[in-house]
């Protein structure tokens, strides 16, 4: 177990390092350097020099990277080119909103996906099973933004049950308000992702139900409900855990389109705007956060895997 | 130790209020009886009747052997009776499955479940996959107790499970309780299954191919354990198997299945000595024997019946040597006619002619070996023909075991460790050993499918290890391999004809010539040339193996490497393939390296035998020397472990199974590698590795090879005798053949 964890941790660190280099390096791949971008084509050489100095763009490439990552680790990702505010501050404004939306979306994904997956796997020929299978196909086919628009038109504009554009209402301040503000974008996301999750779960559960050890459990006299609960689900959840981890990572990276549709103040929209404004410092910082969050989730999935599966834990 | 555990188990059983440990009541009513069981599936090919009116009874305390080939309905029938068949294409299950007074088939599912595991328990094949990989082994057994006894506390269950584990011979039961199945060997997993099955002292114990995936030495341990389990619980045991040897060793009565029915039932001795159904007799004739060398097996012609298209008359009619085209066989389905005693019977119109098949055989078979090329007048020193086709010298293969943070090789698996072999043209070298002994690695080494770590492999004098790419290709044309699973080695999207023609195409032969050669090859391996356009999936296992052999022959090899070529085949078909291989060798003087775990098959096909253990050859020599005068304790124990398909005198056979499992090849024992399981190991064995030396006309690697000859197979009674500093778990068969017999 420890060997496995240490190995995963080292991998995590190495990939994060490579990721940070890539994130930092991408500004060099762009035409012109940040100072030119910032000051426009008419700036004088002296002004450019001063700006480069301010942005920490002096010295060799290695020095630049080291100073950047050093600052980043200390919590300083530089200032936004555009607003002049510290990048960290800008990000911290948006991250809670994104995390909250991601949390809601994930909760919905699991609430819908797991039961649907189980029913589809166990009752593939019953009416419920067929109906839910239809849901899965539809859920995969319908684009999230279109569903979002549909929800807005029906529920917000026509029925006026819910607000059309969602502000960020922190859950810890106003749970009810948070729910009404987040439920629509979360649903728009979760219909798709729950279909993916349910598919995965249904496939692996269907496979597990045919395994010898399920037959053994039945032969022991275990009631069918317990066969599924105690024997099948835990084994079937293994591959599903991976997909859920990936989905959550995707949510954290920002669901740009959904945030745009609902005018939701999340990380995705911040980054989207920053790219439009060529606010590279902000883009760098945001992407670094997303990469780190993604890798961290992966690490957690691996740990969770080890907890669920003794064959990984004990070798 | 185990005796105490057994007593505890008995007391516990009575306290539970379930049946007291009665003496086997063979005159009593059957504990389980199947009546006219029919099981049907819907398939694209139509309705498949997998079980076609099967009936049998099991009495308390007896073992009923249900023996038959793949697809004969022997397993499907019990799974259906217990409601464990759950495929969506199950069409119908009808008939009766009486457990005492209750018809299991008429019970609603929850009621049925309450009886499963309590009154009737199952032991499955391939125990490793029959256990839940993410649940502690102890919990899995405890669950069997607690679902039927809700009042049982977790602690009490644990105590009881530890007792059970001890009883079935799992060493360190308290520690093992908390481990997971992947930390157990196959044999240990099967012990766990047995513990689970007997936990509630069931009235019926059904073992479905319980030893099929196991090595012979472990199989012998498990069969002994089943015997003890039966004696302890007083249960009626249904032993379902394809292995006639296992049946002969363990069953009291036998039911033979064919085409979804019981074709013959009777007392075990009667079945084996005076069979009353031609199929039973033919099966016995097709079986390679460990005790007698026969020149030729008598295969059953044709293929097992297609359950989607059962003939109206006798299902065996197309293959029956007795029928001789008599109309009644193809028109009237023979019903099982019980004989006087009421339990025996044969579903044949001419039951009295069946036994004739059996007596006809040994005469014809024994007449020939003397004249065969592998005569006895060929002692070890004379077996050195000019140039061997295959010459392996000190071959060595090591695989790295990667571990740690950087996955650096931290240890090495010594898969093959200094093996030398030679196979001359026209001869067969049989390579036997248990799983993990390195025999398959050695076979792959010949074609360099694994890279050698050391030594030399010469095919026709060409060094395989040093060959460049084009030379290797040439060598691989001269040395061909046939694998266990022909389906995996054939391209499923090409027709069988194209599969066979593949090597010819690579040689650049024009199309017309290829077609001709393929037709020719098909005829040689006994396939119809007009079937060349079919896909592999349309063939049965035996036919596919013929296709694979045809493909191997296409490039006219001088050497065939046969890696368990008949292990996946049924006895009747296996005999066909073995005979085919013998014929081909006679025609073309190919050399065979025949790898198998099956000692009887090797005896049948080989001229010379090499026995492998943990990467080394421990004994080699002519078939007669190794089988009739084995000097290595391992060979002796192996031979003693093989169940003999002859129930006569089984009570007198001293069959003390080899204890424990094969040690890990990562860190083989010092000195003699067999010493951790050797019943006669002495101090010198741990210090000095015995060299392979000439003993009695063969080669044996044992310090005491001269002294083993007169000893009991398997060594002193008890078989508990590993030497000092043995780390391996004790053999742990719970006093097989001792305690229970004394008490009974
Ligand atoms: S009934 Fe006829 S075909 Fe069937 S086994 Fe007997 S003799 Fe053979
Ligand atoms: S050398 Fe010793 S341990 Fe090895 S087989 Fe012979 S007696 Fe047994």
TrEMBL record, chain A:
InterPro entries: BPD_transp_1_N, MetI-like, MetI-like_sf. PROSITE patterns: ABC_TM1. It is found in: Cell membrane. Keywords: Cell membrane, Membrane, Transmembrane, Transmembrane helix, Transport. It comes from the Bacteria. Residues 95-301 form the ABC transmembrane type-1 domain. It is a multi-pass membrane protein. The chain crosses the membrane at residues 12-30, 101-122, 134-157, 177-201, 238-262, 282-308. Belongs to the binding-protein-dependent transport system permease family. This is ABC transporter permease.
UniProtKB/TrEMBL annotation, chain B:
Residues 1-27, 365-384, 708-744 are annotated as: Disordered. SMART domains: AAA. Transmembrane segments: none annotated. One of its GO terms (molecular function) is ATP binding. Keywords: ATP-binding, Cell membrane, Membrane, Nucleotide-binding, Transport. It is a peripheral membrane protein. Belongs to the ABC transporter superfamily. This is ABC transporter ATP-binding protein. It comes from Phytohabitans maris.
């Amino acid at each position: 177990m420890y060997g496995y964890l240490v190995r995963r941790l080292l991998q995590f660190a190495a990939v994060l390092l490579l990721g940070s280099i890539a994130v930092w390096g991408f500004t060099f791949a762009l035409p012109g350097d940040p100072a030119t971008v910032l000051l426009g084509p008419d700036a004088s050489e002296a002004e450019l020099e001063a700006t480069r100095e301010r942005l920490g763009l002096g010295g060799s490439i290695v020095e630049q990277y080291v100073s950047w990552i050093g600052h980043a680790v200390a919590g300083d990702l530089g200032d936004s080119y555009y607003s002049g505010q510290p990048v960290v501050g800008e990000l911290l404004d948006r991250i809670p909103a994104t995390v909250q939306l991601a949390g809601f979306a994930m909760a919905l994904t699991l609430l819908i996906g797991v039961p649907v997956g189980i029913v589809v796997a166990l009752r593939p020929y019953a009416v419920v099973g067929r109906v839910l299978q239809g849901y899965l196909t539809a859920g995969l086919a319908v684009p999230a933004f279109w569903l979002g628009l549909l929800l807005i038109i029906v529920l917000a504009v026509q029925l006026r049950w819910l607000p059309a554009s969602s502000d960020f209402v922190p859950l810890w301040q106003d749970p009810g308000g948070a729910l009404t503000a987040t439920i629509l974008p979360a649903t728009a996301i979760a219909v798709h992702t729950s279909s993916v999750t349910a598919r995965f779960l249904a496939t692996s559960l269907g496979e597990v139900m045919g395994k010898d050890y399920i037959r053994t459990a039945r032969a022991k006299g275990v009631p069918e409900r317990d066969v599924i609960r105690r024997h099948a689900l835990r084994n079937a959840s293994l591959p599903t855990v991976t997909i859920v981890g990936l989905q959550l990572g995707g949510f954290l990276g920002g669901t740009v389109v959904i945030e745009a549709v609902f005018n939701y103040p999340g990380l995705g929209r911040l980054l989207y705007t920053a790219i439009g404004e060529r606010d590279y410092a902000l883009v760098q910082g945001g992407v670094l956060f997303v990469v780190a969050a993604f890798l961290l989730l992966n690490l957690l999935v691996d740990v969770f895997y080890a907890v669920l599966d003794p064959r990984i834990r004990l070798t | 130790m185990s005796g105490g555990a057994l007593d505890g188990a008995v007391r516990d059983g009575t306290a539970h209020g379930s049946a007291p440990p009665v003496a086997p009541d063979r005159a009593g009513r059957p504990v389980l009886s199947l009546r006219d069981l029919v099981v049907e599936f819907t398939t694209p090919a139509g309705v498949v009747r997998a079980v076609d009116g099967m009936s049998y009874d099991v009495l308390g305390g007896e073992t009923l052997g249900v023996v038959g080939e793949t697809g004969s309905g022997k397993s499907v029938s019990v799974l259906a009776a217990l409601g464990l068949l759950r495929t969506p294409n199950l069409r119908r299950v009808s008939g009766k499955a009486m457990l005492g007074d209750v018809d299991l088939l008429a019970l609603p599912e929850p009621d049925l479940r309450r009886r499963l595991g309590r009154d009737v328990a199952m032991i499955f094949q391939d125990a490793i996959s029959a256990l839940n990989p993410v649940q502690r082994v102890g919990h899995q057994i405890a669950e069997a107790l607690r679902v039927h006894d809700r009042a049982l506390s977790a602690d009490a269950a644990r105590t009881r499970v530890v007792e059970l584990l001890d009883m079935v011979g799992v060493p360190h039961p308290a520690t093992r309780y908390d481990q997971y199945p992947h930390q157990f060997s196959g044999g240990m997993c099967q012990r766990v299954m047995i513990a689970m099955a007997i936990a509630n002292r069931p009235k019926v114990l059904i073992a479905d191919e319980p030893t099929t995936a196991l090595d012979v030495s472990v199989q012998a341990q498990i069969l002994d354990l089943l015997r003890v389990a039966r004696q302890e619980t007083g249960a009626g045991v249904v032993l379902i198997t394809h292995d006639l040897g296992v049946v002969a060793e363990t069953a009291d009565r036998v039911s033979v299945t064919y085409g979804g029915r019981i074709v013959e039932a009777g007392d075990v001795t009667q079945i084996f000595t005076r069979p009353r159904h031609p199929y039973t007799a033919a099966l016995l004739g097709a079986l390679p024997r460990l005790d007698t060398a026969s020149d030729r097996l008598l295969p059953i012609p044709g293929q097992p019946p297609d359950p989607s298209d059962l003939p109206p008359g006798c299902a065996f009619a197309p293959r029956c040597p007795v029928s001789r085209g008599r109309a009644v066989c193809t028109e009237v389905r023979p019903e099982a006619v019980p004989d006087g005693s009421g339990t025996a019977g044969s579903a044949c119109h001419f039951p009295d002619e069946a036994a004739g098949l059996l007596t006809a055989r040994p005469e014809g078979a024994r007449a020939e070996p003397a004249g065969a090329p592998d005569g006895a007048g060929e002692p070890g020193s004379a077996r050195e023909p000019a140039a061997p086709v295959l010459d392996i010298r000190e071959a060595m293969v090591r695989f790295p075991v990667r571990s740690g943070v950087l996955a650096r090789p931290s240890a090495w698996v010594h898969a093959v460790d200094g093996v030398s072999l030679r196979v001359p043209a026209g001869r067969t070298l049989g390579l036997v050993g248990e799983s993990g002994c390195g025999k398959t690695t050695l076979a792959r080494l010949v074609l360099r499918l694994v890279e050698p770590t050391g030594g030399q492999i010469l095919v026709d004098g060409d060094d395989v290890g040093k060959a460049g790419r084009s030379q290797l290709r040439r060598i691989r044309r001269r040395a061909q391999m046939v694998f266990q699973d022909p389906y995996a080695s054939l391209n499923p999207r090409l027709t069988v004809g194209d599969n066979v023609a593949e090597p010819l195409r690579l040689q650049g032969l024009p199309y017309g010539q290829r077609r001709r050669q393929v037709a020719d090859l098909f005829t040689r391996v006994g396939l119809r040339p007009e079937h060349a356009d079919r896909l592999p999936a349309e063939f049965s296992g035996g036919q596919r193996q013929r296709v694979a052999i045809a493909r191997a022959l296409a490039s006219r090899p001088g050497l065939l490497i046969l890696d368990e070529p008949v292990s996946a085949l049924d006895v009747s078909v296996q005999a066909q393939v073995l005979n085919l291989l013998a014929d081909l060798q006679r025609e073309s003087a190919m050399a065979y390296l025949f790898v198998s775990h099956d000692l009887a098959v090797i005896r049948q096909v080989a001229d010379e035998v090499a026995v492998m253990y943990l990467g080394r050859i421990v004994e080699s020599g002519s078939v007669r020397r190794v089988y009739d005068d084995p000097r290595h304790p391992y060979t002796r124990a192996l031979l003693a472990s093989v169940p003999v398909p002859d129930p006569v005198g089984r009570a007198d056979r001293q069959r003390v199974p080899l204890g424990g499992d094969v040690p890990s090849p990562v860190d083989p024992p010092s000195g003699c590698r067999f010493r951790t399981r050797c019943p006669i190991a002495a101090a010198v064995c741990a210090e000095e590795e015995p060299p392979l030396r000439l003993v009695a006309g063969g080669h044996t690697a044992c310090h005491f090879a001269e002294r083993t000859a007169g000893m009991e197979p398997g060594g002193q009674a008890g078989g508990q005798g590993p030497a000092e500093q043995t780390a391996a778990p004790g053999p742990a068969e719970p006093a097989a053949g001792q305690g229970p017999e004394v008490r009974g």
